[in-house]
Amino acid sequence: MKGILEEIHRRHYILSISGWVFVLLGLAFAVGILVDDRELLGINLWIKPLKFALSIAIFLWTMGWVIYEAKMKHHPRYVLGWLFIVFMVIEIALIALQSYRGETSHFNNSTLFNARLYTIMGFAIGFNTLTIAFLAMVFFSKKFVLPMPYLWAIRLGLIVLVLGSLEGVLIVRNYAHTVGAPDGGPGLPFLNWSTTHGDLRIAHFLGIHALQAFMIVGVWLGHTKLPKRRATVVLVLFALAYTAVVAATFYQAMNEQPLLG
């Protein structure tokens, strides 16, 4: 793990450092859980910013790794990195602010101020998704001297990442992440995914972290003795199976069924 983090820093030191900043924020939010017993929707109000901080750290590190593989020139490479950082800073800042205020950050139109914060978050995530889509286009529009299983892991992972991000639009349209009941019911420890009704966050989570899963499998296949073509087929089959699981959890949620129901 240490070697991977050092390599990320070598590839894109700004995204590497930013990822560590979000890890530190996560630790601060963890302390918040210990010293602040206020609850929101049935759980400690600092759990949500903690989850987002850790997820964003992983996202930024992954983007630092992947942007390097795109072999872009120095300027566009760092412009992309800074765009991801700005969008994620907006996201975590508003989530943390609303937690501090004891307010929900999502689906909150209780006041004009809360509604505007929610709108800003929506724009930030929307532009972040467009930036990811642009990066995906780069990987499909150029030729790369990369192991084929690894290259297709990045390509397909970015596509599913975009789809997972777009699933957030459906969550917004539902005006809740729970389907069949109000948000805030019984949920799994820490994750808080509903244990009694459908929960759109499950498919969203699996979708936005597909890239990491695909890349791990792609790297592993590149180190096996399988012929390149066969290894690529295995990677594509894994990606299809993973995407099918994402689709199944989405279907399950839309039918008001909990993950473990």
Question: Which features would summarize this protein structure in a list?
Answer:
mainly alpha; 261 residues; two-stranded antiparallel sheet
Describe this structure in words.
The two termini are 35 Å apart. 72% of the residues lie in helices and 3% in strands. The longest helix is centred in the middle third of the chain and has 30 residues, at 112-141. The chain is built from 9 helices and 4 strands; from the N terminus they run H-H-E-E-H-H-H-H-E-E-H-H-H. It folds into 2 domains: 7-142, no CATH class; 146-261, no CATH class. The chain is globular, with a radius of gyration of 19 Å. The strands form 2 sheets. It has a two-stranded antiparallel ribbon with strand order 1-2. It has helices spanning 2-11, 13-35, 47-69, 74-101, 112-141, 148-174, 201-208, 210-222, 228-254; strands at residues 39-40, 43-44, 178-179, 198-199. It is mainly alpha-helical.
Topology, element by element:
Blueprint: H1 2-11, H2 13-35, E1 39-40, E2 43-44, H3 47-69, H4 74-101, H5 112-141, H6 148-174, E3 178-179, E4 198-199, H7 201-208, H8 210-222, H9 228-254
Antiparallel strand pairs: 1-2, 3-4
Helix pairs in contact: 1-2, 1-3, 2-3, 3-4, 4-5, 5-6, 6-7, 6-8, 6-9, 7-9, 8-9
Brief summary of the model shown:
With 261 residues, the chain is mainly alpha-helical. The chain is 72% helix and 3% strand.
Quaternary structure of the protein: single chain
Indicate the structural class: mainly alpha
The residue-averaged pLDDT reads 91
Number of discrete helical segments: 9
Low-confidence stretches: none
Largest sheet: 2 strands, antiparallel
What share of residues are in beta strands? under 5%
Large-scale geometry: globular
What sequence of helices (H) and strands (E) makes up the elements? HHEEHHHHEEHHH
* Rg estimate, integer Å: 19 Å
Separation, N- and C-terminal Cα atoms:
35 Å
Strand order of the largest sheet: 1-2
Counted beta strands: 4
Helicity level? over 70%
Q: Please tell me the total number of domains.
A: 2
